[in-house]
């Protein structure tokens, strides 16, 4: 299976999320990315895994309140 790296706009389109939010998360180190000069490339599978984990953790946190 070949790993596909997406640019920010491509990632936003695939995930249907705002590009500016994804950029902020990547800048803060909360989303995995590869920096190539001033540009970022994202592994869709890795980003989806991180977002799924965060969603699950947030769901548990809401249940505990």
Explain this structure:
The protein is an alpha+beta fold. It has one domain. Helices cover 58% and strands 15% of the residues. It has three helices and three strands. A three-stranded antiparallel beta sheet has the order 1-3-2. A hairpin with a 2-residue loop joins strand 2 and strand 3. The longest helix is centred in the C-terminal third of the chain and has 21 residues, at 44-64. The radius of gyration is 13 Å and the shape is globular. The model has no long low-confidence stretch (mean pLDDT 90).
Which keywords apply here?
65 residues, 3-stranded antiparallel sheet, 3 helices
Decide which structural class fits the backbone: alpha+beta
Which band does the percent of strand residues land in?
15-25%
Helical percent range? 55-70%
Poorly predicted regions are none
Q: SSE order, as H and E?
A: EHHEEH
**What overall geometry do the principal axes of the alpha carbons give?**
globular
- Strand tally: 3
Tell me the major beta sheet. Answer: 3 strands, antiparallel
Into how many domains do the coordinates divide?
1
The end-to-end distance, rounded to whole angstroms, is 41 Å
Strand order of the largest sheet: 1-3-2
Tell me the quaternary state: single chain
Counted by DSSP, the helix tally is: 3
Mean pLDDT comes to 90
**Rg from alpha-carbon coordinates:** 13 Å
């Amino acid at each position: 299976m070949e790993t596909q790296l997406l640019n920010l706009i491509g990632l936003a389109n695939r995930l249907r999320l705002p590009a500016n939010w994804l950029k902020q998360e990547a800048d803060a180190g909360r989303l995995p990315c590869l920096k190539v000069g001033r540009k970022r490339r994202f592994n869709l599978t890795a980003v989806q895994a991180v977002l799924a984990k965060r969603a699950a953790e947030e769901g548990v946190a809401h249940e505990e309140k």
